[in-house]
Amino acid sequence: xxxxxxxxxxxxxxxxxxxxxxxxxxxxxxxxxxxxxxxxxxxxxxxxxxxxxxxxxxxxxxxxxxxxxxxxxxxxxxxxxxxxxxxxxxxxxxxxxxxxxxxxxxxxxxxxxxxxxxxxxxxxxxxxxxxxxxxxxxxxxxxxxxxxxxxxxxxxxxxxxxxxxxxxxxxxxxxxxxxxxxxxxxxxxxxxxxxxxxxxxxxxxxxxxxxxxxxxxxxxxxxxxxxxxxxxxxxxxxxxxxxxxxxxxxxxxxxxxxxxxxxxxxxxxxxxxxxxxxxxxxxxxxxxxxxxxxxxxxxxxxxxxxxxxxxxxxxxxxxxxxxxxxxxxxxx
Length: 332
Ligand code: NAI
Ligand code: MG
Prior knowledge:
- By secondary structure, the protein is of the alpha/beta class.
- The protein folds into two domains: 1-93 and 239-332, Isopropylmalate Dehydrogenase, CATH 3.40.718; 105-235, Isopropylmalate Dehydrogenase, CATH 3.40.718.
- The protein is built from eleven helices and twelve strands.
- The strands form two sheets. Strands 2-1-3-12-11-4-5-10-8-9 form a ten-stranded mixed β-sheet, sandwiched between helices.
- Helix 1 runs parallel beside helix 11, helix 7 packs parallel to helix 8 (222-235) and helix 10 packs across helix 11 (319-328).
- 1,4-dihydronicotinamide adenine dinucleotide binds at residues 11, 15, 67-70, 80, 239-240, 255, 258-264, 270-271, 274, 312.
């Protein structure tokens, strides 16, 4: 079995290395196929997302990816946005679940953020109208709107979830979110056995802060999903613990919600759990269910025991100490 590995920038190499060690310790027999993306690739190849990287992922179909830094002000478009558009990874899925031993104000959070990954305000269509005036276009198409909502409902059906909340701002963006909302309602009709709820995005944020346990599957446009993902990560222990996946019809790229964390990069302080859990999602996706479940169980046990935890989790450990614990807590 071959998995593509994009180490990424900043803390990327530190946390993806930890994930490789844990996947190996879980007994998975696989080969990693390295591919370049990010600042490193820009310096090496003059291009932060070489075509060869996209080709390699298309060939092997499954990748684990560390965070990539997009150089700001150098004329580059976001590497992540281009990767997701280039491979048509239209569905971003972020499971947000309360973890044992992590001190947060809520218990029993168990929700899924499904984010449209290819258009919306991140379509990348921006231009200067006249000096001092710029426009960013918010693209919503019927096809993409329907397929992401259908993805959310299919996900709910397959995972025994009961409700899908469509988040929008259709009262203000009457045309774009109006279309999205119409599409969501039409798709919801195909799933009469799953509850459908439509809610303004600001309202959703309020309720996420007041009582996140009331949500099940949330589905929304690209920018909303980016913001809400970080908010939801904060409900269960922060960016260091929440995994993610980007799915398309042909390929899947697994990556944490967090970025390259330049403030702690290279210091051995990064929490690898988010990427480790992304790797567990990847294993589950390719049918290595047992290894994925054992890694998840080890994460739970490690957090519960509270030994060797990184600073973001209130410990005084390092990437190395927590990785050692994660390996030690893998049961046969
Ligand atoms: P960030 O997610 O990198 O960091 C936000 C805060 O969370 C920082 O204080 C950081 O130290 C902390 N943090 C993040 N991950 C952590 C971990 N695993 N363990 C402990 N602490 C962690 O967001 P920021 O600073 O806005 O972005 C930095 C760079 O990352 C930017 O260039 C951005 O474009 C890129 N980025 C890349 C993503 C990707 O490749 N998927 C996603 C988000 C941002
Ligand atoms: Mg983000």
